[in-house]
Specification:
There is one protein chain. With 420 residues, the protein is mostly helical. Helix content is 81%, strand content 0%. It is globular and about 55 Å long. The N terminus is likely disordered.
Length: 420
């Protein structure tokens, strides 16, 4: 056995990467490390096309639907308070394996759900699992990639998230309309995918974590001193982007059904898929641009997407709704890539999972509040008016985020010019 193979085997079994050695994991492991993120994010949105079935069988309003969606946000945010710090101190594997176990439990609950309470519990478990992978899972991709491949790691981690988020509703929509036992079949397939993710995490060549740091194990995630500006810029664009896609996921099927006369689960799933396909594709397209240019473009995408959303609901236009979904996906994708890339460039590996958690806390807080508010508002004043209010508020936030990034870039440029 070669020396490199021996070292890789030690890393897989829990050993550390040797110090002062220029050794990197093979390229295939950088890609494989992103698979657990994809698998969990497939689950995160797999329920989207199925809500119309549960609404018919169980009976609940659009407001209740957004509460079910928000229970996912609650689980995710609670997970982020813990998983980033624990992952940095104890290792990625010790966070990811229990999270995948919770994701498998969520599949069982979804498959057998007969009440709103069951759906809330399943979404809560899903949120906890997602919180673990957006902190520990994305950091694991960076760990495996090593310092030389950090930009690739940010791209793969971000794309694995949005691609999985889009693939979930597409698979759920198609499987639920073509095979018997729609909810059981969908989550049986997802459980099988999660088992492969467990195997991947168990064999992943991860470095041993640094010695546990000081401070509470449960705390609001934060970044090291000097990285606050990068975090703020990432959140200012990522938060409106992921809020826009969250709205499409939670109320998109209702828009299709109530305004456009389509109750097809495949169509609802396909719309979510193309939204996240846009989020994936745009990241590969802009990956060579500067990080702050990517963020400004992301803010612009979200802004124009909200204009298209207002046009869609007022004109009952399917093409405008699809355009709004595509632009929302592009806005989230670029906001996410720009934010992760800024953190990867400024935060040391021993704090990276916590930094990723901080970015996602900022994004998902807004994504939890605004769509739920829009859901209940739609029960009171109608879906068209509520969507218009939601889009206007989010448009203002996206414009402010893009303007903030531009201002920060100009200030930094002036400072460099004076110092030179």
């Amino acid at each position: 056995m070669s020396e490199s193979e021996t070292i890789l085997r030690e890393a897989i079994s829990g050993g550390s990467w040797p110090e002062k050695r220029d050794l990197e994991a093979p390229n295939r492991w950088v890609w494989l490390a992103a698979w657990p993120v994809t698998a969990v994010f497939i689950l995160s949105n797999a329920a989207t096309p199925l809500y119309v079935l549960w609404q018919r069988d169980i009976g609940f309003s659009k407001g209740t639907l957004t509460v079910i969606f928000a229970s996912y946000i609650v689980g995710l945010l609670g997970s982020l308070l813990i998983c980033g710090v624990v992952s940095d101190r104890l290792g990625r594997r010790r966070v990811l394996l229990p999270a995948l176990g919770l994701a498998l439990a969520a599949c069982v609950i979804f498959a057998t759900a007969s009440s709103v309470a069951a759906l809330i519990v399943a979404r809560l478990f899903t949120g906890v699992a997602v919180g673990a992978v957006v902190s520990a899972g994305m950091a694991a991709v960076t760990d495996v990639a090593g310092p030389r491949r950090r930009r690739l790691a940010a791209l793969l981690a971000s794309c694995s998230m949005v691609f999985g988020a889009g693939l979930g509703p597409l698979l759920a929509g198609v499987l639920s309309e073509t095979l018997p036992g729609p909810t059981v079949t969908v989550f049986a397939v997802e459980a099988a995918l999660l088992v492969t993710a467990v195997v991947t995490v168990a064999r992943m060549p991860l470095p041993r974590p640094a010695a546990p740091g000081a401070g509470s194990w449960i705390r609001l995630p934060r970044v090291p001193h000097g990285s606050g500006s990068q975090l703020a810029q990432g959140i200012s664009v990522f938060a409106p982007g992921i809020t826009a896609t969250s709205f499409v996921l939670s109320l998109g099927p209702s828009l299709l059904s109530g305004l456009l006369g389509s109750s097809s689960r495949s169509v609802a799933g396909a719309m979510a898929f193309v939204m996240f396909l846009a989020a994936t594709g745009v990241q590969f397209a802009v990956r060579r641009l500067s990080r702050r240019t990517i963020l400004v473009a992301g803010a612009a995408g979200t802004t124009v997407g909200m204009v298209a959303l207002v046009a869609a609901v007022h004109a009952a236009s399917a093409p405008a709704l699809v355009a709004a979904a595509l632009l929302a996906g592009a806005g989230q994708g670029m906001g996410q890539l720009g934010g992760l890339s800024l953190l990867n460039s400024s935060v040391p590996p021993e704090r990276l999972a916590e930094a990723n958690a901080a970015l996602n806390v900022g994004g998902y807080l807004l994504a939890g509040v605004l769509p739920v508010s829009a859901g209940y508002l739609s029960d009171a004043i109608g879906l068209t008016a509520a969507t218009t209010v939601f889009a206007t508020v989010l448009m203002a936030l996206a414009v402010a985020g893009g303007a903030g990034v531009i201002t920060t870039r100009r200030t930094a440029h002036r400072s460099r010019t004076r110092s030179s």
